[in-house]
Amino acid sequence: MGEVHSMRVTTMTQSVRLALSVGAVTGLLALVQPAVAQDAPAATSAAPIPKVEITGSAIRRIESETALPVQVITREEIEKAGVTTASELMARVSANVGGLTDGASITDGHDQRGFNSANLRGIGTSSTLVLLNGRRMANFASPGDDTGVDLNNIPAAAIQRVEVLLDGASALYGTDAIGGVINFITRKDFQGVELNAYGSKTKEGGAGKRTATLTAGTGDVAKDGYNVFMVADLQRTDALSTSQRKFIDNLHIPERLPHLLSGYTSPANIRLTGAQRDYLNDNGFTINGKPLTNRTINPSVPGCSAPANLYLPAGIGGVDACTYNYMGDTELYPKSDKANLLSRGVLQLNANNQLFAEVALSRSKTTYVASSARVRANINYKKIPALAKYNLDSDEASADDDVVGDVELRIRLNDGGRRTSELTSESQRYVVGLTGSANGFDYDIGLNHSVNTIKDKDTHGYLLYDKLVKGIYDGVINPFGPSDAAGRALLDSIQVNDDVRHARGVMDSIDFKVSHAVGTLAGGEAALAVGGEVRHERTDFTPSALLLSDNINNDAAPDGGRPTSDKRTVQAVYGELLLPFTKQWEAQLSARYDHYQVVGGAASPKVGITYTPVKTMLFRASAGRGFRAPSMSDLYRPTLVSSTATLPDPAYCATVDNNYADCADAWETRRYSNANLKPEHSRQYSVGMVIEPTKQASMTLDYWNIKRTDLISEIGDDIILGNLAKYGNLVHRLDNGQIDYIELHKENRGAQLASGLDLVLDFRGVKTWAGSFGGHLSGTYVLNSKIQNAVGDPYVSNLGRFVTDGVVPRWRHTVTFDWDQGPYSASLSNTYSAGYEDQNSAIDTNGGTVVAANRVKAYSLWDMSGAWQVSKAFKLRAGVQNLFNTAPPYSNQAAFFISGYDPTYTDPRGRRFYASANYAFK
């Protein structure tokens, strides 16, 4: 069956308890030893039909369809799409919703910046398990709300295929597999030398890319008894600034979202006290010829030093001051340099047994450039020409002063430079193992050492705060325009160049499994697999002494910040039973038990059934339970101080006639970990069918349903403020009744529901006089997606509706049309995400109004490529991504640093032209 062909997979190895492992490994090696000593079978022996391992199963079998739905992305499909990174590739998977990308991680904050992740079913990055050749990798080391493998550490050029198991698989793979499993499978037996060069350029400039790949291997396992190969891949992507994209201006952000811009400007805005404002009004002071109505003023109104600083009466600066449009002065896509090296060696011990080793090294350096430094500082009014002639030292004017005669400035310090950080993610992974069969037993054993190291470095635009504010107060640094030579020299001397955050995660594991036939049923051999794993995890987080001193402007010290070092041991054992009752009916039963040090244990059973009434039709169903263990960041991360989006405080609003101009703000939050967390639990089931009426056409349709309980989460700050009767104890207030801060605690609470349909259509090799044609559609239609914040609370749906920090589109698809004739081929593809109701909650604290409601338009991108096989060794390919230069649709979301569009499911790069050349010596 064609669908069967798409489901080939390699070894997906897992687990065992230490107590089991010692005895089992000893017995396993005893089985292998006599087999190693035997001679290889005679060449005249009939070659057996090879067995393969199916994703989601630990039992090798003759290739066939399984009870679990698996989508496969081949190397050829990767080349046709013109993608060069694992993250770009996953963006084309319809079941992947809201994964972290370079574009979405643009921010002036630092929490897990640089992390690229997958998110199957939209139920969370932490619930998607990513494997490399069937084994785990160390997770992204920086502490934060998301746990998972950094896709930057997957050597994209080495990928042979990607297998996406779209069903919970905790019964085999343990934690994190609730949403599904993504297995990146690399080349295994390469011979010769292959060179590949790739380059792309965008229509409007910026975000260009160059890559170079060298693949080399020697040895034929079948003939020589060994193979060693390596893949080295280098990539560089250029930065993309807002000034390079016309669509930014076309979004009309200052007009539509003025309140999401900034009140820190150049020349600086002046923040008066109420007494100072009243005094100035009483003494005839005016802005733009009018008395003051607000406390924030700027004498340059209405000029405001355009274009970045604007006069927007409806903006955050208000009618008397300026507003800074940071969306005209930041980056949409970061500069990055990626280097990957993967090497694999195989030694054929005899006809049935192999010793193998893998080395994967990667380094990804991403440079983030945000808008120039923002500073809050004081200055004596006599140093401000527009105020110097007034007497702000008087009793009337200084009634509210902390220091008599001082005024507060809110400065955009262009002379300090744009804030620039370098995030370096480095990964090492070493695997050595033994695999094969002996005396009727199939086995696999492996040792795995994986490390991920994160270095977050402030390199420019971050300034020593104490010397900065002193320089402003003393008049050395000019807050109202360019500084003189002395001011610039001071700014240069206080630039921070420091590794402010350093994180390291280490995972060491031993895993093995053994499978064997246990009898014969009407449909064939029944088989049993048992296996297990012992895994040791350690994370270290070291903030720099300078960061902890809280003396870096715009990079505040974490509240209660301190170095942390945490570790734990995980033990697991599992089993699987394959029962082919008849030629039509087959059952797969599996179960796993994991025990996490401190956290406790979790059992995960699963059952799957397939029914094949005829060779061209298959029906399947599965049901199981899963779990996600709390990460060490969930358990032990120090308190993190952040802030909400601009939200109203109902208690305060009730005292000011619900005037949002007075009672809405970005309130401080304090986010706490919880060492007493228990695992999340899930139950999921799926029902589907595969139909292949001809060799050229097939269809799969699968219904899936997931429920998670005991969610490890915080109650959303918007939920807390929306239900003070229940959650008011989490809101801490000042003596005047206004909010001081809001507590956000990690706890096991509430539930999540998600369900939908996956559809795959394939047409292959339809031959005509004009060539051979084919097509492929992979789509996901979500029926339900909603979350309950606490037991007893109503469910809140994010299906087709932006809630808190994201949305799950109703429908996503990728469709591809292929043509080839002789040495020529071409491909046309479309990726599509349905539109949705916008966040529609951002508040204008000047006018006291909520942003105009909006529906985000559907997002549809077309790509086209063509290839010419010049000779057996030489191939050229060229293409266009985003053929129609489709811009991200307008969004009023306020959850991300980027405003005006949603960076989680759109691509700001626009139309891109690319070409590649591949030459192989074999």
Automatic annotation (TrEMBL):
Q: Which Pfam families match?
A: Plug, TonB_dep_Rec_b-barrel
Q: Which family does it belong to?
A: Belongs to the TonB-dependent receptor family.
Name of this chain's protein:
TonB-dependent receptor
Question: Which parts of the sequence belong to the TonB-dependent receptor-like beta-barrel domain?
Answer: 417-883
Taxonomically, which superkingdom? Bacteria
Look up the signal peptide feature and give its range: 1-37
Its record classes its membrane topology as: Multi-pass membrane protein
Q: Where is the TonB-dependent receptor plug domain?
A: 64-181
Keywords linked to the UniProt accession = Cell outer membrane, Membrane, Receptor, Signal, TonB box, Transmembrane, Transmembrane beta strand, Transport
Under the cellular component aspect of Gene Ontology, which terms does the record hold?
cell outer membrane
Q: From the Swiss-Prot or TrEMBL record, state where the protein is found.
A: Cell outer membrane
